[in-house]
Hints:
Elements: H1 15-53, H2 56-66, H3 68-74, E1 79-80, E2 86-91, E3 95-105, E4 110-120, E5 127-134, E6 141-142, H4 185-192
Amino acid sequence: MNTTTEGQLVPQPGWWSRNWKWAVPSGCLGLLLSCGCLGALLFSATAWQSLRGTGVLVDAVTQAKQSLEVREALGEPIESSAIPQQYNMYTGNDGSSARFAVGVKGPKASGTLYGEGHKKDDEEAWTFTTLKVEVPDHPVINLLGPEIEPAPDTVPFDPKSLPDVEPLPENEEPAPRKPERGKTEQEQEDIQL
């Protein structure tokens, strides 16, 4: 005997009917993120190709590899990282300028190559204003030659601080100074020097 009553069976809604309210926005968001990631990947690949084509990194790393001090500090062979740590480049009507930091390493140590340079459109080589390698526990290696550092107590000279003086006419000599009271001419000359 069957004790259940037979009546109309109500069909159950399907998965799509129950979940479309969150599935549609999730699918659209996933599609947008995929397109965004693909766009970022293409942009970075294009930027990297243009960066490699500039030659500034190639010139800088070549100079670092040729330096005896860098070879002694890092060891040989010296390798540079594929992607710079920092890179800014400006291209204008008359040329380009770049500022960068790229990792360099050898068997003994690792360091960072910092550079700043410019190039005119009609020139092939970059002219560097800063090119140095910093290695931990080692003095900074300047690849452009020694820098002359002023003494710590030196005040920089400002030519604008000089008073305006009219030049003497040709063939005229300055008038002799009168000695101050109580001082000889020799003492006054010593004070002026």
